[in-house]
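Students often ask why inverse folding is considered easier than folding. One informal answer: many sequences map to the same fold, so there is more than one right answer. In these notes we will look at a single instance of the problem. The structure comes first.
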């Protein structure tokens, strides 16, 4: 089973190719560049270097958000196009879960962090049990201070992981004190190979059922609802 994983949901661009329990190849960059121009060439380059043809793929796994609205749409669109053209299943996986997966050797709880501006974060709470990532609190969008207060009641060590942790680190540590642990800098980029393994055993779905998960409404939707109230 050859599985292709695609993550363009934030600045990092991640592509991975796995075969059963083996990582054949992995491509990661963390650059402020246009994923729409770079993702497909990166996919083709990885397939070429691993000597795998597109028709050998058996499943597509995609990070479907939350994250950058544009980035999420790009990844989901590419993944759906490939899955449809190859007539293979597609599996959407939380972008936050993908980041959390890099904390697999932490014994406590894991909180991936994406900045959502104005003091807010996209986050969720995860833990590993018998080597399998478990969701403790579903992905959500709220103030970092509110999130920290919510986590305080768990009385457990919490690993904060993700490229945007530094933006909210002071708030999190002020509320949580010694409960808060910050992941090593090498763990902050989402690993597309982790994304692939999160989706490899999951049941695939049809391309028509896969949609971006923004967690909160996009700005256009908010403005439209406000205009309707007026």
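Output (designed amino acids):
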């Amino acid at each position: 089973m050859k599985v292709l994983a695609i993550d363009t949901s934030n600045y990092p661009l991640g592509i991975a190719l796995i075969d059963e329990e083996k990582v054949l190849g992995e491509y990661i960059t963390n650059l402020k560049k246009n994923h729409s121009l770079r993702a497909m060439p990166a996919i083709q380059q990885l397939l070429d270097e691993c000597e795998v043809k597109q028709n050998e793929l058996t499943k597509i796994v995609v990070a479907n958000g939350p994250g950058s609205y544009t980035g999420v749409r790009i990844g989901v669109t590419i993944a759906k196009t490939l899955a449809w053209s190859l007539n293979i299943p597609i599996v959407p996986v939380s972008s936050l879960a993908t980041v959390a997966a890099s904390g697999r050797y932490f014994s406590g709880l894991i909180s991936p962090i994406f900045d959502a501006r104005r003091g807010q974060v996209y986050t969720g709470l995860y833990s590993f049990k018998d080597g399998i990532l478990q969701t403790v609190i579903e992905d959500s969008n709220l103030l970092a201070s509110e999130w920290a207060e919510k986590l305080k009641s768990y009385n457990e060590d919490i690993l904060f992981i993700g490229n945007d942790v530094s933006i909210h680190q002071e708030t999190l540590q002020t509320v949580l004190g010694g409960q808060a642990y910050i992941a090593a800098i090498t763990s902050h980029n989402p690993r597309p190979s982790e994304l692939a393994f999160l989706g490899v055993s999951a049941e695939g779905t049809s391309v028509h059922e896969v949609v971006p998960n923004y967690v909160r409404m996009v700005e256009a939707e908010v403005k439209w609802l406000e205009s309707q109230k007026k």
